[in-house]
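PT: before anyone asks, these are the final sequences, not the draft ones from last week. 330 residues across everything. Please model them as a single complex and drop the result in this thread when it's through.
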Amino acid sequence: MGGQLGFMYRQLTFKPKPIPSSTRLDNKVAIITGANAGLGLETSREFISHGLAHLIIAVRDESKGEAARAELLRNVSNDSCRIEVWKVDQADLNGIVAFSERVETLPRLDIVILNAGVKYLNYEKSPSNHEMNVQVNHIGTSLVSLLLIPKLQASARKINAPARLTLVGSEGQFWCSFKEHSAPNVIERLDEQAAFPPAMERYYTTKLMTQLWTAELASRVTSDEVVITTVNPGLCASSLHRHDSSGALNFFLKIFAWTSEQGGHCLAHAATHGTSYVHGAYFSEQKKTEPCSFSTSSQGIKAQKKLWNETIDLLKKECPRASLTQFDKP
Ligand SMILES: NC(=O)c1ccc[n+]([C@@H]2O[C@H](COP(=O)([O-])OP(=O)(O)OC[C@H]3O[C@@H](n4cnc5c(N)ncnc54)[C@H](OP(=O)(O)O)[C@@H]3O)[C@@H](O)[C@H]2O)c1
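LR: through. Structure below.
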């Protein structure tokens, strides 16, 4: 059952489960962005309980990260997991480069979950003049993904097994028109205040962009080295909704929302389930499923390539420090 009715039905009838106890993460190193709260924190907890050796909580506010680290240390049984808090603000492109340089110093990197995200219902601009949902959910996430791929590839070669990269999307990809895709420059159009739509449309659009970005990235990276997936964690109660005090949302959260822990199960599943056959897959309700029809249509594939090229051009211009040569080919 599709559409909003199908969504409500699935929220009520499906309950995400923890990953199986047979999934072991011993010796593995993982990075989870936005892991100081919500789904990222819960995924951290789950990974640690499966034997993870080294976790990097990548956060924009290190004091929140330290509080999360203390909470994890208090509540987890695997006291051999090394937990570190590293700063990364997805509104600061040069800061992302510094973060990726630090990542290069790790002995290995097995799993990355790009979970950090925002939902702004009003127009706000980032310091580099991009609309905030676009800045954090698309531009920042895209740059982190590009800069961490080489480390994931090097680790995969070292241990002769593919590493994992999971980007957190949303079912919202099904619920936006993304009419901006036909603008001469999509990101420039999305940055215009006059183009900012009411309600959730912009947040959903940036999550559709995550779907398109993941598909293009997966087509450019071999699954022998990095298995790339995207995941819909479902509607979950978390601080994502902090800028949205509408009665409708509160009603939806009360009736339909899963807990952050259940959303965390979805992330943990998408980042560990299967091997090369899930490369490029969209997961929802803990199974590989079809993304929205726009993303696989000829229009959607055109938009995917256009968005890729625009994003690479923007990153080269606004962040010349970032080495993107691996992704230069058309
Ligand atoms: N909850 C849902 O219903 C739902 C549904 C579908 C998809 N998702 C997706 O799931 C992911 C996690 O969301 P959540 O529900 O766990 O929300 P959350 O509790 O608000 O967590 C979001 C995380 O992203 C971080 N973040 C925000 N702006 C950032 C920036 N500029 N740089 C780096 N980190 C930044 C936040 O840090 P601060 O704490 O410092 O703000 C926080 O750690 C998001 O990508 C969201 O879009 C959530």
